[in-house]
Specification:
α3 crosses α6 (148-158). The two termini are 28 Å apart. With 510 residues, the chain is mainly α. It is elongated and about 90 Å long. It folds into two domains: 4-199, Fumarase/aspartase (N-terminal domain) (Fumarase C, Chain B, domain 1), CATH 1.10.275.10; 206-315 and 349-509, Up-down Bundle (Fumarase C, Chain A, domain 2). The chain has a three-stranded antiparallel beta sheet. A two-stranded parallel ribbon has the order 1-2. A two-stranded antiparallel sheet has the order 3-5. The protein contains 20 helices and nine strands. It is found in: Cytoplasm. There is a cross-link at residues 144-146 (5-imidazolinone (Ala-Gly)). Its EC number is 4.3.1.3.
């Protein structure tokens, strides 16, 4: 049975967004929220019949806002707005992004601050629950005046136009799929066109999804780092809580505690703990993992604060205030979201860079403390994981490029009316690519560290790192002659993305 997420006019949680986007949880709008929608619509209808023009109700849009639109042309105005603004190009974005975008726009509509009709809200809700996903293109949003082109693609489908992916994923005309699912297209009324497209919902949805991914990936990074420390005969003493209390960054303490826990009870670590060990300090990529991973955790924490504020926001222009006033504003500007999307790309690149350095150390016979060159079964005949590290290096280089901020750019639009934009959609798109890249880099470290730990036999890893090796071995064979490595990298990625890797470790803890 699918979970149910209720929109009641108040904030949604990040978990709600992930559930609806990724598990197709059904959505319901409360009766109180629908009553608020009807109340604000009454104010719009009063203004629509008034002689004095109101932006977005009886005027054109953007740089054409000075034109008063007569009553008999306002339905055409709404259709024209959506058709002209649904001007995206490039590949189709993922259905989970479209679902997040639709949910977040619905939440804003349900606040009663936008002036749409109840029937319009209910039809959009039906599209989401019937898993009718409008085609949204990669390019078209400047992250200001809302994610205009992406949201317009959704509004176009609401009108029964354009293309959608049906519940099987097939690409079909919206009108055909809606008729098949008994969803009646909407004929938009005054103000509704703007209300459907004037929000930061696309970039916010992608932020919520990235935050969920990064929470999981940073735990994986702590685990793979601990496995590398163990495989390289490093020390766990540097992860002691009293050392990290001297620099009380919360994320750093969490990562240090994780690494201590993962290494607890390790026979490999114990094997070189005595006074005869001449290893005074480990390399930075081992010793400083909690500092880097912890800083990434704290960056995620700040981004979560921004996301939660946005999830409590009602973003539209103009907006219907509780006293009935309809006022223009600039809340659609994506800067707050764009900045954190860009910010997150920096620690993603750095965490991946550190993981690549640990991997390289395990492959270098001069630095691996007794492991064979490149972890090869028969060095010279076999190359081991030599080229897996090349793949990591290529990805890390790309992640550095993706860490260059999008939000420092701005290209004026709409005849200079919209003369500063956030580029937040672009920041969100590149962060999604960066998160995928980090996943692959950690998957390669997992493969390499597990192979190195197997090569330390008869010494055994600790219970938790051993559990990670064991679950990997259900999908990837242990050390031996060279094999096709790409499927093994993909299998390790799947273990990370599915959560099965951390589940195995957690189960062993319990």
């Amino acid at each position: 049975m699918l979970e149910l997420v209720e929109i009641d006019g108040g904030p949604l949680t990040r978990a709600d967004v992930v559930k609806v986007a990724r598990t197709a949880a059904r959505v319901r709008i409360s009766e109180d929220a629908l009553a608020g929608v009807a109340k604000s619509r009454a104010h719009i209808e009063e203004l629509a019949n008034a002689e004095q023009p109101t932006y977005g109700v009886s005027t054109g849009f953007g740089a054409l806002a000075t034109r008063h639109i007569p009553l008999d042309k306002r339905a055409a105005l709404q259709r024209s707005l959506i058709r002209s603004h649904a001007a995206g190009a490039g590949p189709h974005v993922e259905d989970e992004v479209v679902r997040a975008l639709m949910l977040l726009r619905l939440r804003t509509l349900a606040t009663g601050r936008t002036g749409v009709r109840q029937s319009t809200v209910e039809t959009m809700l039906e599209l989401l629950n019937q898993r009718i996903h409008p085609v949204v293109h990669e390019y078209g949003s400047l992250g200001c005046s809302g994610d205009l082109a992406p949201l317009s693609a959704v509004a176009l489908a609401l009108m029964g136009e354009g293309l959608v992916h049906d519940r099987t994923g097939a690409l079909r005309p919206a009108a055909e799929v809606m008729a098949e699912r008994n969803v009646r297209p909407v004929e938009l009324a005054e103000k509704e066109g703007l209300a459907l497209i004037n929000g930061t919902d696309g970039m916010l949805g992608m932020l919520c999804l990235a935050l969920a991914d990064l929470h999981a990936l940073l735990d994986v990074a702590d685990l793979t780092a601990a496995m590398s420390v163990e495989a390289l005969l490093g020390t766990d003493r540097v992860f002691a809580p009293d050392l990290h209390a001297l620099r009380p960054h919360p994320g750093q303490s969490v990562s240090a505690a994780n690494m201590s826990r993962f290494l607890a009870g390790s026979p490999i670590v114990e094997s070189h703990r005595g006074p005869e060990c001449n290893r005074v300090q480990d390399a930075y990529s081992l010793r400083c993992s909690p500092q880097v991973h912890g800083a990434a955790r704290d960056t995620v924490g700040y981004a979560e604060t921004v996301a939660d504020r946005e999830l409590a926001s009602a973003i539209d222009n103009p907006v219907v205030l509780p006293d009935g006033r309809v006022e223009s504003n600039g809340n659609f500007h994506g800067a707050p979201v764009a900045y954190v999307l860009d910010f997150l790309a920096i620690p993603v690149a750095d965490v991946a860079s550190m993981a690549e350095r640990r991997t390289d150390r395990m492959l270098d016979v001069a630095r691996s403390h007794g492991l064979p060159p490149f972890l090869a079964d028969d060095p010279g005949v076999d190359s081991g994981h030599m080229i897996a590290q090349y793949t990591q290096a290529a990805i890390v280089s790309e992640l550095k490029r993706l860490a260059v901020p999008a939000s420092v750019d701005s290209i004026p639009s709409s005849a200079m009316q919209e003369d500063h934009v956030s580029m937040g959609w672009s920041a969100a798109r590149k962060l999604r690519k960066a998160v995928d890249g980090l996943t692959t880099v950690l998957a390669i470290e997992l493969l390499t560290a597990a192979r190195a730990l197997d090569m330390r036999k008869p010494l055994l890893p600790g219970p938790l790192t051993g559990a990670a090796v064991a679950v990997l071995r259900e999908h990837v064979e242990g050390p031996g002659a060279d094999r096709h490595l790409a499927p093994e990298i993909a299998a390790a990625e799947d273990l990370i993305r599915s959560g099965d890797l951390m589940t195995a470790v957690t189960r062993r803890t319990a």
